[in-house]
Amino acid sequence: MIAFIVLLALLLLATFGLGYTAPLFAALFPGLDNPVYRQDGFPALLLGHVEIVAAASSIAVILGVATGIAVTRPAGREFRGLLETVAATGQAFPPVAVLALAVPAMGFGAEPAIVALALYGLLPVVQNTIAGLENTPADARIAAAGMGMTPAQILLQVELPLAAPVILTGIRLSVVIGIGTAAIASTVGARTLGLPIIVGLNGSNIAYVLQGATLVALLAVTLDQGFDALTVGLTRWRSAT
Amino acid sequence: MITLDHVTRRYQGFSALEDVTLTVADGEILVLIGASGSGKSTLLQLINRLQDPSSGTVRVDGEDIAGIAPEQLRRRMGYVIQGGGLFPHWTVARNIATVPRLLGWDRARIDARVTELLDLLRLDATRLRNAYPHMLSGGQQQRVGVARALAAGPSILLMDEPFGALDPVTRAELQAEIRRIHTETGCTIVFVTHDMDEALGLATRIAVIDRGRLVQLGTPLELLTRPATDQVAHFIGTTDRGLKLLAVQRVGDRVRPGETTPGEPVSAEISLSSALSAMVTRSQDRLPVSDPAGAPLGTIHLADLLGP
CA nearest B79: which of B207, B191, B231? Predict the structure, then answer.
């Protein structure tokens, strides 16, 4: 929890402070005319980045958890193989290729980026939802049924709470991958922290690349620690003595 | 009263239970005994509809349970499984409160009932109420499992090899608890085990299941004296059958009234095997017998152990 708060503070400091670091980057990279990226403000880029990842991850999580639950129910069991294949295919496609295919269909902007990221992030969520639900103790499930819980009550009160740490690990992986991959979405006109990186690469401005990459990395580590704190909170019962 | 009427249960052509007819009387402990895979757990699960019969009917108090929603039926019965089957993410109190919560009891009533059950199962309420299952010993977990099953005051308690994973000492303690709780609540118990000693010690009647068929149904004494088939005889065991026979009969049934013998009297309630043990340790062939209150009843001789 403390690590998350410190990292969040650091991320906000970097986002709002980078605009004032021109002397530092001028000293580090004396050959550059513009040592700090100024086309868009870093706060706006961070917001754009978070929005795209949030939208894509929400789709991946809702779709992934829902289908993962569906294929571990008696009625959906035979679709499990199919779902895992579809999700694995989604991740096997390079996001750049999905972007290239999505643009003609959806135009430039955030939408094709969200679709590509959601597809890309589906697999870890699906896999961990299935694994988490299947590894809940069988005797707890039998006891729950034997006590007279309905299938919905067993799912919500027993299976999901017990599977939560594993499912959360999948979501965490999906989100962190999404943060890194969302940088590429700037190639199709989405405003993300990838923009300074791409502009920097095109214009041989290493300072821009460094600034974009630092914020992307900080954002990823911050959210990773946020999930860590959430997991600890959800599994507090395990460490009770 | 639970009645199974020509009940058969098949899975994909394999017959787990074949044409079983039996009645469990109110207030009795019926022990289902058999080897693993014999169908004894299947029979138990047919009573709370964790499984449904392929043919035949199961009735509880005369009502065909096929017409009762499984969840409603199960909330009326206690169910205990091996290891307790506790929910690891819930405290002891929350585990015990499972069925009362499903039934929508108010909080005060649930809290009072949890305290009552912790006391009934001799669990330290102040220390264990808010503990999680992993913090308890195997025996304590199983006690919580029994408390949870009794929470809503069911008239029927189904127990599926509940003490199978416990050490012999803890197991004997819990068997004694079940006898005590049975006496206190008067509920009907159907108890599955593969341990003949456990069956002989607990049962009002024993049903021996072999490869899906009911091969014998009778009191412990009937099973020991008149095993219906070689398998039943084999299951009882050949070497210590005599000792088991002594274990299921009481001194009070064989006492010679009025005859006095010097020495420390034994209670008429103890088993004949305990009386034999006392004779051997005291090197005496007769013991004075008293009633549970301590008043002298008579004498039991070594020869009386052989038969009335």
Answer: B191
* DSSP letter for each residue of A138-177: HHHHHHHHHHT--HHHIIIIIIHHHHHHHHHHHHHHHHHH
**What distance lies between CA A163 and its chain's CA centroid?**
19
Q: What does the pLDDT look like over A179-224, one tens digit per residue? A: 988 988 888 888 899 999 999 999 889 999 999 999 999 999 999 9
pLDDT of residue B239 exceeding 80: no
Q: Pick from B75, B82, B89: which is nearest to A148 by CB?
A: B75
Question: Could you read off the pLDDT of A105-131 as tens digits, one per residue?
Answer: 888 888 888 988 898 899 999 999 999
Ordered by start, the domain boundaries in chain A are 2-240
> How open is the CA angle A60-A66-A71, to the nearest 5 degrees?
120
Tell me which CATH homologous superfamily contains domain A2-240: MetI-like (1.10.3720.10)
Query: Token digits for B180?
Result: 């005590």
Could you tell me how many CB contacts below 8 A there are between chain A and chain B? 66
pLDDT at B18: 93
Residue B84's pLDDT is 86
Q: How many residues does chain B have?
A: 308
Distance CA B216, CA A85 (A): 53
B184 Cα to chain A: minimum distance (Å) = 22
Q: Which two tokens stand for residue B187?
A: 């509920």
A206 contact B CB<8A: no
Does residue A158 sit at the B interface (CB-CB below 8 Å)?
A: yes
Q: How many residues does this entry show for chain A?
A: 241
Could you tell me the pTM of the whole model? 0.84
Mutate to test the interface with A, among B44, B76, B87 (most CBs of A within 10 A): B87
Distance CA B194, CA A65 (A): 41
Write the ipTM: 0.84
